[in-house]
UniProtKB/TrEMBL annotation:
One of its GO terms (molecular function) is 3-hydroxypropionate dehydrogenase (NADP+) activity. Its EC number is 1.1.1.298. It is an enzyme of class 1 (oxidoreductase). InterPro entries: Nitroreductase (IPR029479), Nitroreductase-like (IPR000415), Nitroreductase_HadB/RutE (IPR050461). Gene3D superfamilies: NADH Oxidase. Residues 19-173 form the Nitroreductase domain. The lineage of its organism: Bacteria, Pseudomonadati, Pseudomonadota, Alphaproteobacteria, Acetobacterales. It comes from Commensalibacter nepenthis. The keyword Zinc does not apply. The keyword Ubl conjugation does not apply. SUPFAM superfamilies: FMN-dependent nitroreductase-like. This is Malonic semialdehyde reductase. NCBIfam families: PRK05365.1.
Length: 195
C-alpha cells in the first residue's frame, strides 16, 4: 500500500480545523450514505461493528437535542447542517454470527457483559474517529463534541433501540473566511515513547 498524496494528508490533518461558523450549504443525504459506507469498511475487533449513528438533519430533530446540550454547545450544534450521535448497541454481539461467521464469537460477549460493554464502547469510539476522517475525506468540516447529557440523549433518541450515546459530531461546510488558528499540539518527545 502506498502513502496518500501530500494534498490528501493536508485535507485530513494539516489544513483541517474545527469550524467556528457553518455556511448554509446543505449536506445531501446521499453524501451521508456514502460516509457511512466508508466508515463501515474500517476495522473493529472481531469485526464487531458496535457503533450506531443517528444523523440529525431536520431542524425538529436538532431542536429535540437542545435540552441535552451544555450551554456552550447549543449554538454550534443547532447551527450545524447535521449532528451525528455516535452511539453503540450493547447487544452488538447478536450480529456476530453474520459479521464473523468463521468463528463463534457471540458467546464471548453474551456470557461476559462487562467485556461486551468495554468492547462496544471502545470500538464505537474508534468508529466515530473513522467517521471524522471519512467526513474530511469527503470534503465535510467536522466538529466533534462531548458536553451533553448522555442519559437524556439516550432517552430522547434511543428508547426503542436501547443504544447508548458516546459523543456527537457536527458536520457541514465551514465559513472559510472565519476559520480559527490551530491550538498547540504536543511534540513527539512529549507524547511518545520509542521502546
Amino acid at each position: 500500500m502506498s502513502s496518500l498524496p501530500e494534498e490528501s494528508l493536508r485535507q485530513l490533518f494539516e489544513d483541517a480545523r474545527t469550524p467556528k461558523f457553518w455556511s448554509d450549504k446543505e449536506v445531501e443525504p446521499a453524501l451521508l450514505i456514502q460516509l457511512y459506507n466508508l466508515v463501515k469498511l474500517a476495522p473493529t475487533s472481531g469485526n464487531c461493528q458496535p457503533a450506531r449513528f443517528a444523523f440529525l438533519t431536520h431542524v425538529v430533530s436538532k431542536e429535540k437535542l437542545r435540552s441535552a446540550l451544555s450551554g456552550g454547545n447549543v449554538d454550534n450544534a443547532l447551527n450545524a447542517p447535521v449532528v451525528v450521535i455516535v452511539a453503540h448497541d450493547p447487544l452488538f454481539y447478536e450480529e456476530l454470527p453474520k459479521l464473523y461467521p468463521q468463528t463463534e464469537l457471540r458467546s464471548w460477549y453474551a456470557e461476559d457483559i462487562p467485556f461486551a460493554e468495554e468492547t462496544a464502547f471502545r470500538n464505537s469510539t474508534l468508529q466515530g474517529g473513522y467517521l471524522i476522517l471519512a467526513a474530511r475525506a469527503l470534503g465535510l468540516d467536522v466538529w466533534p463534541m462531548s458536553g451533553f447529557d448522555n442519559s437524556m440523549v439516550d432517552t430522547l433518541f434511543f428508547e426503542d433501540q436501547g443504544w447508548h450515546s458516546n459523543f456527537l459530531i457536527c458536520l457541514g461546510y465551514a465559513k472559510k473566511d472565519q476559520q480559527s488558528e490551530r491550538l498547540p499540539r504536543l511534540e513527539f518527545q512529549d507524547a511518545c515513547l520509542m521502546l
